[in-house]
Backbone:
């Protein structure tokens, strides 16, 4: 089976692996999934074997992991519907991790998705810190939508500083906007994230 990959997350299967320019157009991947829970996060690991175009044999299998969290909302009829899924992970050939968020369809693609780390405190922001500087209490990471069908997917490569902050912060939220102009902000639990992202891949 010939398939090209891009880091656009097939979130319905919990997979952040899809395609990146680091792989040739004719790469072949054969996954074997393992899932382990860490607090409110899950670590998904897949055994991936890559055969590049022009090479007679595939490379040795490599285990690729991501950590994910799914947020649900309750509808008026009492049924539960998935609101969004977030995944953070890194492909073997990538230097930095990537964050991927999947939302329902019907969103305003122009607005993108905002991942906010920390909580903004208006009163704290008015108070000068040591040295007389006023510091922000929250950092925002803007994700761009890259594909949209039954669900919409936004992604962004994290800088080393952003990744470190994501592992150390105790508050985060995800915001996007529907086409009717309604802003949807969902709190993100960081319980278990640092442990999940640092955990070694499980052995089958």
Residues:
């Amino acid at each position: 089976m010939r398939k090209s990959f891009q880091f656009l997350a097939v979130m319905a299967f919990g997979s952040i692996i899809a395609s990146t320019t680091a792989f040739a157009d004719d790469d072949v991947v054969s996954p074997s999934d393992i899932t382990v829970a860490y607090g409110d996060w899950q670590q998904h690991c897949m055994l991936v074997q890559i055969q590049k175009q022009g090479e007679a044999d595939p490379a040795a299998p490599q285990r690729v992991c991501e950590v994910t969290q799914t947020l649900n909302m309750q509808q008026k009829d009492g049924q539960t519907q998935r609101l969004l899924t977030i995944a953070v992970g890194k492909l073997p050939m990538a230097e930095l991790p990537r964050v991927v968020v999947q939302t329902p369809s019907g969103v305003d693609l122009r607005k993108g998705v905002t991942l906010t780390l920390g909580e903004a405190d208006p009163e704290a922001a008015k108070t000068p810190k040591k040295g007389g500087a006023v510091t922000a209490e929250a950092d925002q990471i803007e994700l761009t939508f890259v594909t949209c069908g039954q669900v919409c997917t936004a992604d962004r490569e994290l800088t080393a500083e952003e990744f470190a902050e994501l592992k150390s912060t105790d508050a985060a939220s995800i915001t996007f906007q529907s086409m009717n102009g309604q802003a949807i902000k969902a709190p993100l639990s960081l319980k278990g994230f640092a442990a999940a992202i640092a955990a070694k891949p499980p052995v089958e």
Q: What stands out?
A: The CA atoms of residues 49 and 60 lie 6 Å apart. The first helix runs from residue 122 to 126.
